[in-house]
Design goal:
22 strands; Helicase, Ruva Protein, domain 3; ibrinogen binding protein from staphylococcus aureus fold; elongated; alpha+beta; 14 helices
Length: about 600
């Protein structure tokens, strides 16, 4: 996602046309390193987003409204003081640098006309937003630092503004073929062509350097020493095409998508190297808005996922530590039958016992061969007291076994439930689905509601209708897939009819799947496709052979008091399935 000099040129060109003469109506700072300027013209209103965040530095018009903090940060207050009510008079980009200057006509403290410049520097972790006056003095920066951080310059109020150091590259718009050849052939012959272009020419990112080489039909890893005159002329032809389009402001902004529909990359010109991907063209500002809106959404999803996974994984670890302890307690308590046997044998041999004995050897009349066994005694107890002590140990062990078995069963059931929740979280791809799971964890006591207000919002969301995945089999049958336990309960307990088919991976955490039969016999192809969906939306997604149970919904029951998504079923049959992602995408389409 290179916000390179070419992208900045396209952004600058569009902003000049849209924002020149616009009035600064409002200024927000929704995040620590992000600004939103609300700008207005007759019958037009724009939101200009400016970010100096290291991973998301950018500037573009956005349609998305962000919350305004109740207490504005200091930099936001400085901007409001100097820029509120001003008019953008000029928008410029120095060369092909990733720098944008917004000149704003405003007034000083005495009401006299003044010109302030908002300088936007898009340079990765060195990105900044700086306000300077008409004397080139810094009024403030969203990131302040002294010479202790940078030997080149200081960004502090009152200091003179100094531009970032130039990289000494050549402008692609001021070249002829001879100069292009001279610059390329002066480079190290062992360097790749893409690296030479990147080091030599201004405004080009690694992505655009690869694009030039790709358009030539040359290998992307081709080095200079394998180039002859033919290859160099090809490079010049395609490089100069981009250079000419740049000079004429004929951009072709492009957004490339991954196969899963998420944005992959963007550029100011067409990206032919991604011929197999979905491509979107449009205005540069719209491309950037779409890309970063999707990226922000994915970051929100990942952040929410991680917070929920932390809760679930901590509880899974807690249970995994408890299970061995319960199993050990059961093994120890299993000696209870020995205590009962010893008590009965001592009762039958009371005539052999005397107080003060440490042990006694008796015949085990329960053994086929009446094998003799030795029983330890407490010498301080009478014979009858020793017998009573053994029977007490037997009763205690019997009660312990019953209690531990119940605890073990509850722990195993809870572990099974949490593993299903973990799979739902990992496979969720929307905030709404994750919020449903979060509400479920709150209701089950794993997460505490932070505030009463938040609890009310959750209740409101909880009453919205669940939205399970809907697929269509090749035979025309509708197939529902729950993405979390709330949706699993909904499609199994409420949406399904008694004659519908229910599917679930056998003894593996995963989604409930329903085939709507409408009273018809389900073809083998539809059953297999539904089983593929069940296997794919389970913990066994990456396995090659997955057992999937299926039965009619009338044979599926939810026990009283069972956790969300937990059911019991009978009269099932099992098929072995290979999860097929291509088939899943096809059925979804």
């Amino acid at each position: 996602m290179p916000f390179d000099g070419l992208v900045m040129a396209a952004v600058s060109h569009e902003l000049k046309n849209k924002l020149t003469g616009a009035r600064v109506e409002k200024i927000y700072q929704p995040l620590k390193e992000e600004l939103v300027l609300v700008l207005s013209k007759p019958r037009e209103r724009y939101r200009l987003l400016i970010s100096a965040n290291a991973g998301n530095a950018r500037v573009h018009i956005t349609a998305k409204s962000k919350p305004n903090p109740s207490n504005p940060p200091l930099f936001c207050m400085v901007l409001r003081k100097h820029l509120d009510g001003g008019y953008i008079s000029e928008i410029t980009q120095p060369g092909l640098e990733r720098i944008l200057h917004l000149k704003i006509n405003t007034r000083d403290e005495l009401g006299r006309p003044a010109v302030k410049t908002l300088i936007i520097e898009i340079m990765g972790k060195h990105s900044n937003i700086i306000l300077v006056d008409q004397n080139n003095k810094i009024l403030d920066g969203i990131k302040r630092y002294s010479h202790a951080v940078s030997r080149h310059r200081e960004v502090l109020p009152g200091r003179e503004y100094i531009s970032p150091p130039e990289q000494g590259k050549n402008s692609p718009g001021q070249l002829n073929e001879e100069r292009f050849f001279a610059l390329l052939t002066a480079a190290d012959i062992d360097l790749k062509l893409t690296d030479i272009l990147l080091k030599t020419f201004d405004g080009f990112s690694p992505l655009m350097c690869r694009e030039v080489v790709y358009r030539c039909g040359l290998p992307l890893d081709m080095t200079l020493n394998h180039c002859g005159e033919y290859e160099l002329r090809l490079l010049w032809q395609h490089f100069s095409e981009i250079g000419s389009s740049l000079e004429e402001k004929k951009f072709n902004p492009t957004l490339v998508f991954n196969r899963d529909g998420t944005p992959k990359d963007f550029a100011a010109f067409n990206l032919t190297q991604f011929e197999e991907h979905k491509i979107q063209h449009g205005e540069m500002n719209q491309i950037l808005n779409d890309f970063y809106t999707a990226k922000d959404y994915l970051q929100q999803i990942n952040s929410k996922k991680q917070s929920l996974l932390t809760v679930v994984e901590n509880n899974i670890n807690r249970l995994q530590k408890k299970l061995p302890k319960y199993q050990k307690s059961l093994q120890q308590a299993a000696r209870g039958e020995d205590y009962r046997l010893y008590g009965e044998l001592l009762t039958a041999n009371m005539h052999k016992l005397k107080k003060g004995m440490h042990k006694v050897e008796v015949e085990n009349f329960y053994h086929p061969e009446w094998k003799k066994i030795t029983i330890e005694l407490n010498p301080q107890l009478t014979p009858s007291e020793n017998v009573q002590a053994l029977f007490k140990k037997y009763v205690k062990s019997k009660n312990t076994v019953k209690a531990v078995q119940q605890q073990l069963s509850q722990a195993e059931e809870e572990l099974q439930y949490l593993e299903a929740v973990e799979i739902a979280i990992r496979q969720s791809n929307t905030i709404h689905d994750l919020e449903e799971t979060e509400n479920e964890l709150v209701s089950q006591g794993y997460i505490k509601p932070q505030t009463a207000n938040r609890g009310r919002r959750q209740d409101k969301k909880q009453h919205t209708k669940p939205q399970p995945l809907v697929f269509q089999s090749t035979d025309g049958f509708t197939i529902l897939v729950g993405k979390n336990n709330r949706q699993n309960d909904y499609i199994t307990q409420r949406a399904a009819q008694p004659h519908d088919l229910w599917l679930h991976t056998k003894e593996i955490p995963g989604s409930h799947v329903i085939i709507r039969t409408e009273g018809q016999k389900v073809p083998a192809g539809t059953l297999e496709q539904a089983a593929v969906l069940a296997a794919f939306h389970s913990k066994a997604r990456q396995s090659s052979s997955v057992p999937v149970d299926y039965t009619y919904i009338k044979h599926v029951h939810k026990p009283k008091g069972a956790k969300p998504g937990m059911v019991i079923y009978e009269n099932q049959q099992t098929v072995i399935i290979h999860p097929d992602e291509k088939l899943v995408r096809k059925l979804k389409q």
